[in-house]
Design a protein that fits this description.
With 758 residues, the chain is mostly beta strands. Among the domains are: 210 residues, Lipopolysaccharide (LPS) transport protein A like domain (lipopolysaccharide transport protein A fold), CATH 2.60.450; 139 residues, no CATH class; 149 residues. Helix content is 4%, strand content 60%. The protein is built from four helices and 45 strands.
């Protein structure tokens, strides 16, 4: 701290010391120099003495001041700091060249390279008028950043700790002095980590205005870009352009508008809404096209078709133990009605939804938990008359009591009860010729299953015997006649144990990162028996597995091998290998004589090093007659190998083999050519020897990615057998990496059990 004194007389020096002594009543000094009057000083406002009124109040946090020269006015309690001024209070730090601050009101004026650091972001400007107590102020010629957003304003007002008002400025995610894009605003209300509301917003690319919106609101909790555009080319559509415009109606209602152009089929439009309110949350979507198919032959009677989708999804958490979920689908497809089932609206326009379910269900489910049990009520009607073989549930009620301990004993009780009214809709507008051959039918079913088990331990083996019975009542049999209730008796036992051994192995050879090794072997045997049901399944309508039940006498066996180690002090499975099968004891209905094994299933998850993963599964056929050509052979084999090539790239290869069905090899390779360029390849090749399956490359995809600072550009070229060529460009902001229209296909290492055959 430097104080300059004009006089050196002892009397004058005594007066100055008295003044400083009064000052030190409010400030605590921490000087590294011996003389408190010479050198750079650091001052902290002395906390006020706690005020006690029935209960003690917390003391005010101190305000810390430092600078090259500090002057203090005792009457006004103003502190003036000149040169490298720094103020810290309640987690906020203000720095500048000149600062005047009142220690009572906590308000001040900062000039010269003013900078305010807070948890919400950083503000810089020529002049800052700020109150530390209320976290509010005004900044002239301000620059504000709150990752990943950058804001520039002629005048920036900090209304509170959670709101900024930008006047005559812009917002961007580009940190260049001259950003590649920006949103210019007349006024912008910015709420860090929450949302922004812009008035008079103009979207600029470079210095060129491309879009004007009188008002625009965007939630930062939603990572998607407000406007998405995807051009491309596809054999079925020709040139296409997909656009998605996002908007916010209220804080809890957001939406988007779709406008898509396809050269060969015309224009499609629609909108979607996401909502979250008192009675639950959900989304609504309408997508409509009056298709004019220019690929139809000139002699075709009609090439115009009305096609649309209406979808509603809703979930309501009524209380912690009760929730309601519902989905509604309405699909109209005059192209399918006129030209046949080769055309499907979902398949043509929403292929990924079609892959999951070609005939999505409309349903409503109410679930209630009761601590140890639960109750479900479901209604599932048919809302699309072109659905065939559709099962309606009007309604279905299920009660479930999982295995529950009876008192303090070792006995456990399990119960499953269900009642359902089925309507099987086999007739449809797509199959009028078969209406008389496969008429609709309806019937009712009540089922109750009770199981008693006893959990104990015999030596080192977990031993759980059980008995169970199941009673099922049907309203009528397959011929429409009355039928007696069906009874099935079950019994069995579950046995399992574990063996393990520890190995003191520590090595990082080829990146294995082994810190000790534990080998665990878990054999499991389950014996199950049930007698022949009192009603043969030939007399029942076959809806699900409950109706097709027959006599069973079998032993399920499984052997699990695990290798575990610690990586980064976390237990990690580096190997999980399971083999399981079922041994049927003299089955009544079998294509083979005597007892036999079912298919043998093998599953492997192996992570030998930090840069290599191996995931595989296979099926070895043992469940058909020896005369069958698949007997004693692998009927399916799937594997995936993933390699991480440092920070530069990755490589993956996999195979999907199904005997007499297909044998495909898939691979992907990704490599960063430079900090700005990245190249990736995806290949799918058919290697099968089945004459009915065409060999050769099924699909090729090449993608070149370019880092454009605040943008990411992907150029992709795809060649798919029997579908043609597809080209598209994708421009995405780094701050909004997700895209709604993401047709890019890449190689992903699958999770166990997720692999499927072609």
């Amino acid at each position: 701290m430097i104080f300059c004194f004009a006089q050196e007389y002892n009397e004058e020096r005594r007066k100055v010391k008295d003044e400083i002594r009064e000052f030190k009543k409010d400030l605590i000094y921490d000087d590294t120099t011996k003389d408190p009057f010479v050198g750079k000083a650091f001052a902290t406002e002395k906390p006020k003495k706690p005020v006690t009124d029935k209960e003690e109040k917390a003391p005010e946090p101190p305000i810390e001041l430092s600078g090259d020269q500090i002057e203090y006015a005792t009457n006004s309690r103003d502190v003036t700091i000149i040169g490298n001024a720094v103020v810290t209070y309640k987690g906020s730090t203000l720095s500048c060249q000149k600062l005047t601050i009142n220690t009572t009101t906590k308000s001040g004026v900062a000039e010269g390279n003013a900078r305010l650091d807070e948890k919400e972001g950083v503000i810089e400007g020529d002049k800052l008028i700020y109150n530390f107590e209320t976290s509010s102020g005004t900044i002239i010629n301000a620059n504000f950043r709150s990752t990943p957003y950058y804001c520039k304003a002629g005048k920036l007002e900090k209304v509170s700790q959670d709101e900024f008002v930008n006047k005559r400025g812009y917002l961007t995610t580009c940190n260049m002095d001259h950003p590649h894009y920006r949103i210019g605003v007349r006024q912008l209300n910015f709420f860090p980590k929450n949302k922004m509301i812009a008035k008079g917003a103009t979207f600029y690319i470079g210095g060129v205005p491309v879009l004007f919106l009188p008002k625009y609101e965007h939630s930062f909790r939603d990572p998607l870009a407000p406007v998405q555009v995807m051009p491309g080319s596809k054999k079925e559509w020709g040139q296409y352009l997909f656009t998605d415009w996002r908007f916010n109606l209220t804080e809890n209602v957001t939406g988007r508008i779709y406008l898509d152009i396809r050269q060969k089929v015309g224009i499609s439009e629609g909108f979607g809404l996401n909502y979250d309110g008192k009675f639950g949350k959900g989304n609504f979507k309408l997508y409509y096209t009056h298709e004019k198919d220019t690929t139809m032959p000139a002699a075709a009677p009609n090439n115009e078709f009305e096609r649309y989708l209406i979808r509603l999804r809703h979930k309501w958490d009524i209380d912690p133990n009760t929730y309601l979920t519902a989905e509604y689908y309405k699909i109209r497809d005059s192209k399918m009605a006129n030209l046949g089932s080769n055309y499907n609206f979902l398949k043509d326009y929403f292929f990924r939804e079609y892959e999951k379910d070609a005939q999505p269900a409309t349903y409503l489910t109410l679930h209630r938990s009761f601590g140890f049990s639960s109750l479900d009520f479901t209604v599932q009607p048919r809302t699309n008359s072109w659905y065939s073989s559709y099962l309606e549930k009007l309604p279905e009620v299920k009660f479930s009591l999982p295995s529950t301990q009876i008192g303090d004993s070792r006995f456990y009780l399990e119960n499953r009860t269900s009642a359902v009214n089925y309507n099987l809709k086999r007739t449809s507008t797509m199959t009028p010729a078969t209406n008389e051959l496969t008429p609709d039918m309806d019937y009712k079913r009540l089922d109750m299953y009770n199981k008693f088990s006893y959990a104990t331990k015999v030596s080192f083996v977990e031993f759980t015997p059980y008995v169970a019975s199941e009673e099922t009542w049907y309203s009528k049999d397959i011929d429409g006649k009355n039928i007696a209730p069906r009874t099935v008796f079950f019994s069995g036992v579950d046995m399992s144990t574990k063996f393990y051994r520890l190995y003191d192995i520590k090595t990082n050879f080829i990146g294995m990162d082994l810190n000790g090794l534990r080998h665990i072997i878990t054999p499991t045997i389950k014996y199950a028996f049930n007698h022949e049901p009192t009603i043969s399944n030939s007399r029942l309508r076959q809806i699900d597995g409950l109706d097709s039940m027959t006599r069973n006498n079998s032993v399920s066996v499984e052997l699990s091998n695990k290798l575990q180690t610690k990586r980064n002090n976390v237990k990690t499975d580096i190997l999980d290998f399971r083999v399981n099968s079922i041994y049927y004891l003299k089955p009544k209905y079998s294509v083979k004589r005597g007892s036999n094994f079912s298919d043998i299933l093998l599953n492997l998850n192996f992570y030998p090093t930090t840069w290599l993963s191996i995931i595989a599964d296979s099926t070895f056929n043992r469940s058909v007659a020896r005369s069958n050509e698949n007997y004693n052979r692998f009927t399916s084999v799937n594997y995936d190998l993933g390699f991480t090539l440092g920070k530069k790239g990755s490589f993956g290869i996999g195979q999907r083999y199904a005997r007499k069905a297909g044998n495909q090899l898939t691979s992907s390779f990704s490599w960063r050519l430079s900090p700005k360029w990245k190249f990736s390849i995806y290949e799918r090749y058919e290697m099968g020897h089945d004459p009915s399956v065409k060999r050769g490359i099924k699909e090729q995809q090449y993608t070149l990615s370019r880092d454009l600072h605040c943008w990411q550009m992907d150029f992709s070229y795809d060649i798919t057998q029997a579908q043609g060529h597809t080209i598209w460009f994708i421009f995405r902001l780094k701050a909004f990496p997700e895209m709604e229209f993401n047709f890019d296909q890449s190689y992903h290492q699958p999770r166990p059990g997720s692999q499927t055959n072609p």
